[in-house]
Amino acid sequence: MEDSAKLFEAEGGTAVSFPVIDFIPADDFADFDEFFLARENIDYIVFTSVNSVRYFTERLSLLKELPDYERINIIAIGRKTASVCEEAGIRVGYTSPKQNARHLADYFRMLDVKGKTVLYPTSDLANDYLQNALSLMGAYVKKFVVYRTMKPSEEVINKYLVNLREGKPDWVVFSSPSSFQNFISITKEHGINDVLGDNIISIGETTSAEIVKQGFRPLITAEDNSMEGIVKSLVNYYKEKESIE
């Protein structure tokens, strides 16, 4: 969050934290462990988030197993995910500029993945779109839940609620569908109902779709699915607004 705050502050804004998501390891790694201990062949690994890299590598460390990444095609969604891969010694072959499964499926359609094994470590909230698309292409998809997404503890929530009660923010940024779902749930539970309006910024199309589904409308959807992209979109919004006025 500190890095994201600095991006807004560099443009003259003030970022206020309000955590709505926490992450923990998956409850059950039995299938994951069995797969790696059997040293099955892997042609591709798809990392869709920083957390997928983190919990994937943490589990392998416990197993004392290290795949031969040089022989595996590594796919990452977003520059930040790719950066975390590189920090972990995992060389990324392709970085998807858009953080959604449809774009990644389109990329795989340009490849010949029939008969290939695609490893897909992900969260408990991930949908089946990519898995189904790859299966239709003839790939063998090994989807493993390596982490769970949940609300923060009440202690953490109460610590930050004061930030919302001090007044309606100019903008509220959502970086995933689950962040929006949890925000709505938390504010409703605590009787805070006037935070959202024409001040919603979404990191990308998938998140925007969830926002619309819940009866709201994002005023800004970042073209570049990253915090840098959000800041750039917000700066451009004000520039366009000034030019019209």
In round numbers, the mean pLDDT is: 91
Query: Strand-and-helix sequence, N→C?
Result: HEHEHEHEHEHEHEHEHEH
CATH class of the largest domain: Alpha Beta
In terms of DSSP E residues, the strand content is 15-25%
Largest sheet: 6 strands, mixed
**Uncertain residue segments:** none
Span from first to last CA? Answer: 33 Å
CATH architecture of the largest domain: 3-Layer(aba) Sandwich
User: What Rg do the Cα atoms give?
Assistant: 20 Å
Number of distinct beta strands = 9
- The main sheet orders its strands as 1-6-5-2-3-4
Which fold name is given in CATH as the topology of the largest domain? Answer: Rossmann fold
Number of helices: 10
What overall form do the CA principal axes indicate? globular
Task: Briefly note the structural class of the backbone.
Answer: alpha/beta
State the helicity in percent bands. Answer: 40-55%
Number of domains: 2
Structural overview:
The chain has ten helices and nine strands. With 245 residues, the chain is α/β, with parallel strands linked by helices. It has two domains: 2-21 and 152-244, Rossmann fold, CATH 3.40.50.10090; 23-150, Rossmann fold (3-Layer(aba) Sandwich), CATH 3.40.50.10090. Helix 3 (50-63) packs parallel to helix 4 (79-87), helix 5 (101-109) runs parallel beside helix 6 and helix 8 (177-189) packs parallel to helix 9. The chain starts with a helix and ends with a helix.
Overview features:
245 residues; Rossmann fold; six-stranded mixed sheet; three-stranded parallel sheet
Topology:
Layout: H1 2-10, E1 22-25, H2 30-37, E2 44-47, H3 50-63, E3 73-77, H4 79-87, E4 94-96, H5 101-109, E5 117-123, H6 129-136, E6 140-150, H7 154-165, E7 172-174, H8 177-189, E8 200-202, H9 205-213, E9 220-221, H10 227-244
Parallel strand pairs: 2-3, 2-5, 3-4, 5-6, 7-8, 8-9
Antiparallel strand pairs: 1-6
Helix pairs in contact: 3-4, 5-6, 8-9
